[in-house]
Amino acid sequence: xxxxxxxxxxxxxxxxxxxxxxxxxxxxxxxxxxxxxxxxxxxxxxxxxxx
Length: 51
Fold this sequence. Notes:
Structural class: alpha+beta
Number of helices: 1
Radius of gyration: 13 Å
Mean pLDDT: 84
Largest sheet: 2 strands, antiparallel
């Protein structure tokens, strides 16, 4: 699965239009451990979320 991207420079630097927000990831009552966070971020990257 790929998402549309926004070009930041003419030489190809771009970011996905969708953003994975992790700023509150550890604020929930069920705090994920390091392996869970790594899997979550890995899944986001696999889906094409790069910002």
